[in-house]
Amino acid sequence: MAANHEFKPLPxxxxxxxxxxxxxxKSHWENNYGGSVxxxxxxxxxxxxxxxxxxxxxxxxxxxxxxHLMRTxxxxxxxxYFGNLGGNGKPDTAFVKWVSEAFGSANxxxxxxxxxxxxxxxxxxxxxxxxxxxxxxxxxxxxxxHLHAPSATLPILVLDxxxxxxxxxxxxxxxxxxxxxxxxxxxxxxxxxxxxxxxxRSLWLAGNTR
Length: 210
Fold this sequence. Notes:
This protein is mainly alpha-helical. It has 2 domains: 21-83, Orthogonal Bundle (Helix Hairpins); 93-207, Iron/manganese superoxide dismutase, C-terminal domain (minor pseudopilin epsh fold, 3-Layer(bab) Sandwich), CATH 3.55.40.
């Protein structure tokens, strides 16, 4: 349990994004993501040390387990968020086909995704396009924090709507940040995630058949 989580480098040059400054990205990566990695490692070390301490009350241990859940969510979502940045913002035909089948059209999908992001502006949370392994549905999901995510769902496209993800560049203009985010999506990564999720679903279903 105490094994350290490795700090992952950005998979793109932060100076080359369109509409998202190098200062913003580096601050987000170093302070918010980096802080979560350090906190996660600290929490895991404390949990490991307390596990064999029979005098530690269960509620105290569970307080740390809640922190463990939150920090894990933050680390994973941040890595997925940075992982789907660094592209030219032009979705490939495979992705357009998938979301068109799921939402009626790519424009309908994008409209809902952006509307959800705008609704989180000035607050905190995430918008995730997720593929549900149980239902086989590709849907947009609202996440108010790092703790809660849709069950049996693999994140395909992740958008950070905490203010730290845009305030340096856009202040309170969350919708301007949304437009910039879409200009920089690395669609090859997004499409690969979705393709892999669809392939994995048969294994998921096989493991849940009785």
